[in-house]
Amino acid sequence: MGFCLFASVSIAARHALDSLGAARVFVLDWDVHHGNGTNSIFHASREVLFASIHQYPFYPGSGPLADAGSGAGEGFSLNLPVPGGSGEDVFCGLMEHVVLPVAVAFDPDLVLVSAGYDAHRDDPVGGCALEPGSYAELTRQVLTLGKPVGYVLEGGYGLDGLAESVAESMATLNDAGEPRPQPRGPLVEKAAAQVGRWWDLEARP
């Protein structure tokens, strides 16, 4: 849809499943754009849990909350749209109260992060309000799963914000610490009501 030549994370997930002995892969996409390619590729699969936190409405226009997958994969696509201007409390709140409980129940062998940094507050393309430290906090949350993690760099169009945010992520991968508790808020409650149709959201890392 204009931003990616290859669905690199999807290729990596498929390779892990087919050739590296993984039975389940969790793909987390926090790029400001919906991860429509990964969503489509694994839409009917139970082998891949896909979670996308993305600005909505926004290009490419896909990824409403109601899209939870199809067929055998129903419930395995977590599309978590957020309005423009959303910051760390929204992104990390969705992670703590919706994404992580599902990931714990799914019990992946591998976690792959579509690590786009265009939700940074200064990004000229996106419209969200994350700080470089917000990506450190998201990384702390990912690491609570205690699983092998691979990051793949995706969006980010303001070079200073991109560089600072990547540096925060990499430093946190080396020395995580504990994530901070996050508020629930109405957006989290709405997402939890949808996702809770398929998953027990009381599970914790």
What does this structure look like?
By secondary structure, the protein is α/β, with parallel strands linked by helices. The protein has one domain (26-139, 160-195): 3-Layer(aba) Sandwich (Arginase, Chain A). Helices cover 37% and strands 15% of the residues. It is built from 6 helices and 5 strands; from the N terminus they run αβαββαβαβαα. A 5-stranded parallel β-sheet has the order 3-2-1-4-5, with helices on both faces. Strand 1, helix 2 and strand 2 form a beta-alpha-beta unit. Helix 3 (88-106) runs parallel beside helix 4 and helix 4 packs parallel to helix 5.
Please supply descriptive tags for the structure shown above:
about 200 residues, alpha/beta, five-stranded parallel beta sheet, 6 helices, 5 strands
SSE order, one letter for each helix or strand: HEHEEHEHEHH
Stretches with pLDDT under 50, minimum 5 residues: none
Distance between the termini: 35 Å
Reported CATH architecture:
3-Layer(aba) Sandwich
Nearest-integer average pLDDT: 96
Number of helices: 6
What level of helicity do the residues show?
A: 25-40%
Topology:
Elements lengths: L7 H12 L5 E5 L6 H6 L6 E8 L21 E6 L5 H19 L3 E6 L16 H12 L5 E5 L5 H16 L10 H11 L10
Parallel strand pairs: 1-2, 1-4, 2-3, 4-5
Helix pairs in contact: 3-4, 3-6, 4-5
Summarize the structure.
The chain is α/β, with parallel strands linked by helices.
